[in-house]
Design goal:
heterodimer; A: alpha/beta; Rossmann fold; 2 domains; six-stranded mixed β-sheet; 9 helices; B: 336 residues; mainly alpha; ABC transporter involved in vitamin B12 uptake, BtuC; 14 helices
C-alpha cells in the first residue's frame, strides 16, 4: 500500500500538485489518467523520489520513502520514465543487468542469483535471442521490452510506469499491457500512467482520475468510468459501451 | 566459478595498442630532437647499464625523463577530466578547456604570480584549484548546469562567455606583468619547456589522488548515461557522484595547469578517441581516455620541439592545432 499525504510539488513559479491525499492499493494495477498537464507524470516522479516534494510525504505501509537512501528505495520501488535515454554501445543484457545495481557491492560483481534474475527477466520478456545486441539498434517495441526487463530484474514490490505504450503501435501496446498484467499476477503492485482511456479501463483494477493537480475521482473503472466523468475531466462528449472482450466499460467519442 | 561483472571488461586489445602508441611517443621524446645528438641506445643503456659519467644518459635522466613523464601524466589527467565531464553532462563537447576550468586556473595562477605576497598565502596548486572552481562554477551557474533540464547549447555558450572574460583578465595581467610577460605568455599557451624533477614531484601526488577519486565514479557514470533520474531510481546517489566527479576534474585539471599551463583540447579529444576504441563502459574508458591523452601530449611535445628547432613551440599550440578542427568536426557531426 502506497500512502500519499498532503503531497505538494512545485515547478518554478507553478504549483503542479496541490495537497494530494490518496492510497494506492496493494497487488493491483492502478491506472493514472487525466488531461495533458494535470500532473500525472509529476505524481509518479514524486512517488519515485525523482522529484522533491515541497510538502507532504509518500510512504509504503509505514515506511517514509524520503527517509530512505536511493539504494534502499531502489530495492522497494522501480520506475520506467516516459522517454528513458538509451546509451550508445550498451547491449540488451547489460542494460537489463543494470536493474541489479541496487543489490551489488562497490565493485559491481553480479552473484549467481543476480545472473539468474537477469536471465529470467530476459526470458520473461522474450529477449533471450536479442541479449547480445546493442539496445540502440532495436525497434521501439523491442526497446520498450528491454526497459521492462530491466525493471523486472530490479525485482521490486512496486513498479511505476510512465506512459509505457505511448510510442508503440497497437500490436506492441497490447503485448506490453499483457506483460504488465503478467507482472501483476506475479504479485507486483503496478501504477501506470496511460493516455489511452480504453486501455486504462480495460487493464486496471483501480482508476485514479486527475484534473489540474488534484484527484478528481478514484475507484474501479466499472464504478467511475462514465460519460459524465469524461465530460467533467476531459471535456469530451462520449458514450460508454461494454467492451465485449474484457467486459469493462469503454468509451466512444461522439 | 566465473566472476560476472555488471560492466564486464572488454577490448583489452585496444588498451594494449594505446599503451604501445604511448610508449613509442614516450621513448621518442626521450631522445628525439636534441642538440646533443642523443640516440635510442642512450635511453636503452640508461635503464640497462646506468653510467653516471655518461653525459647523454645524464641529459636524459635529468632533463628528458621528467619532461616526458610530466607530459604523459598531464595528458592522462586531462583525458580523464574530459571523460568525467562528458560523462556527467552527457555533452560530447564538455571539456576542461571549453568549460573555462583551465582558463580559470590559468587566470588566477597568472594573477598570483604578479603579486609579491601570493593570494591569501596559498600555494600555487591551491590557487589554481580555486581558479578552476571559479571558472567551472561560473559556467555551470550561467549554463543552468546541473539542473535536470540542462541545455547543451546554453552550457557551451556560457563556457565561451566565461572563457572570453577570463582570457581578457589574463591578458590584462600580462600587460601589467611587463618584465615577466614572455615567460608568462609561454606558460599560458601550455608549455613543457621548463619541466624538471621538482615539477614532477609537484605533479604526481595530486594526480594520483585525482585518479583514485575518478576511478570511484566509473560505475556511477555508466548508470548516469541513462539519465540522472533513471540512475537515481537504480539506487545511485547522484549528488555524491557529482561531488566526486567535480572534485576529481578540478584536482586533475588544476594540478596540470599549475605545472604546464592550460594545454588546450586534450580533454576534449582523448575521451572521443577512447570511445571510438573502447565502447561505452567507463571502467574501460577511464584508462583508455587517460592513455589517449598521455599519448597525445607526448607526441605533441615531440612535434613542438621539431617545428623550428632549437626554439620550442609551446605544446599547447600543437594540441590546439589538432583540437580546433576536431572541435569543428564534432559540431558538424552534432548538427546531423
Amino acid at each position: 500500500m502506497i500512502h500519499i499525504e498532503n503531497l505538494t510539488v512545485n515547478y518554478p513559479g507553478k504549483k503542479v500538485l496541490k495537497k494530494l491525499n490518496l492510497s494506492i492499493p496493494q497487488g493491483k494495477i492502478t491506472a493514472l489518467i487525466g488531461p495533458n498537464g494535470c500532473g500525472k507524470s509529476t505524481l509518479l516522479k514524486a512517488i519515485s523520489g525523482g522529484l522533491k516534494a515541497a510538502e507532504g510525504k509518500v510512504s509504503i505501509v509505514d515506511l517514509d520513502l524520503s527517509k530512505l537512501s536511493n539504494k534502499n528505495r531502489a530495492k522497494k520501488l522501480s520506475i520506467l520514465p516516459q522517454s528513458p535515454i538509451t546509451p550508445e554501445g550498451v547491449t540488451v543484457q547489460q542494460l537489463v543487468s543494470f536493474g541489479r545495481n541496487p543489490y551489488l557491492s562497490q565493485w559491481g560483481i553480479l552473484s549467481a542469483d543476480d545472473n539468474k534474475k537477469v536471465l529470467k527477466a530476459l526470458r520473461d520478456t522474450g529477449l533471450i535471442e536479442l541479449s547480445q545486441r546493442p539496445v540502440i539498434a532495436l525497434s521501439g517495441g523491442q526497446r520498450q521490452r528491454v526497459w521492462i526487463a530491466m525493471i523486472l530484474a530490479q525485482d521490486t514490490e512496486y513498479i511505476l510506469l510512465d506512459e509505457p505504450t505511448t510510442y508503440l503501435d497497437l500490436t506492441h501496446q497490447v503485448e506490453l499491457m499483457e506483460m504488465i498484467k503478467t507482472m501483476n499476477k506475479q504479485g507486483k503492485t503496478i501504477v501506470v500512467v496511460l493516455h489511452d482511456l480504453n486501455q486504462a479501463s480495460r487493464y486496471s483494477d483501480e482508476l485514479i482520475v486527475m484534473k489540474a493537480g488534484k484527484i478528481h475521482a478514484q475507484d474501479s473503472p466499472e464504478k467511475i468510468f462514465n460519460s459524465s466523468l469524461l465530460q467533467d475531466v476531459f471535456e469530451l462528449n462520449a458514450i460508454i459501451i461494454n467492451d465485449p472482450v474484457a467486459n469493462k466499460p469503454m468509451c466512444v467519442p461522439l | 566459478m566465473t566472476l560476472s561483472f555488471l560492466f564486464p571488461p572488454k577490448k583489452l586489445m585496444s588498451v594494449f595498442i594505446l599503451i604501445t602508441v604511448l610508449l613509442m611517443g614516450f621513448v621518442c621524446s626521450l631522445y628525439g630532437q636534441s642538440e646533443f645528438s642523443l640516440r635510442v641506445n642512450d635511453v636503452w643503456n640508461l635503464f640497462v647499464s646506468y653510467d653516471e659519467s655518461n653525459i647523454n644518459q645524464q641529459i636524459i635522466l635529468s632533463l628528458r625523463l621528467p619532461r616526458s613523464l610530466t607530459a604523459a601524466v598531464i595528458g592522462f589527467n586531462l583525458g580523464i577530466a574530459g571523460l568525467l565531464m562528458q560523462g556527467l553532462t552527457r555533452n560530447p563537447l564538455a571539456s576542461p578547456t571549453l568549460f573555462a576550468i583551465s582558463s580559470g586556473a590559468a587566470c588566477l595562477t597568472a594573477l598570483n604570480s604578479l603579486t609579491v605576497a601570493s593570494i591569501g598565502g596559498l600555494s600555487n596548486e591551491a590557487v589554481a584549484f580555486v581558479g578552476a572552481l571559479t571558472g567551472g562554477g561560473l559556467v555551470f551557474l550561467l549554463g543552468g548546469g546541473l539542473s535536470s533540464n540542462q541545455n547543451a547549447l546554453r552550457l557551451i555558450l556560457a563556457g565561451i562567455a566565461i572563457n572570453g572574460l577570463l582570457t581578457s583578465l589574463t591578458r590584462a595581467v600580462l600587460i601589467i606583468a611587463d618584465d615577466m610577460a614572455y615567460s608568462l605568455l609561454h606558460w599560458l599557451s601550455g608549455s613543457l619547456s621548463g619541466i624538471d624533477w621538482s615539477s614532477w614531484s609537484q605533479l604526481w601526488p595530486l594526480s594520483l589522488l585525482g585518479l583514485f577519486i575518478a576511478t570511484s565514479t566509473c560505475r556511477g557514470l555508466n548508470l548516469n548515461a541513462l539519465g540522472e533520474q533513471t540512475a537515481a531510481s537504480l539506487g545511485v546517489n547522484v549528488t555524491w557522484l557529482r561531488i566526486r566527479i567535480c572534485l576529481a576534474v578540478l584536482i586533475l585539471t588544476s594540478i596540470s595547469v599549475t605545472v604546464a599551463g592550460p594545454i588546450a583540447f586534450v580533454g576534449l579529444i582523448a575521451p572521443h578517441l577512447a570511445r571510438a576504441w573502447c565502447g561505452s563502459n567507463h571502467f574501460m574508458l577511464l584508462p583508455a581516455a587517460g592513455l589517449s591523452g598521455a599519448a597525445l601530449v607526448c607526441w605533441a611535445d615531440l612535434v613542438s620541439r621539431n617545428i623550428i628547432p632549437p626554439a620550442e613551440t609551446p605544446v599547447g599550440i600543437i594540441t590546439a592545432l589538432i583540437g580546433t578542427p576536431f572541435f569543428i568536426y564534432l559540431i558538424l557531426k552534432g548538427k546531423r
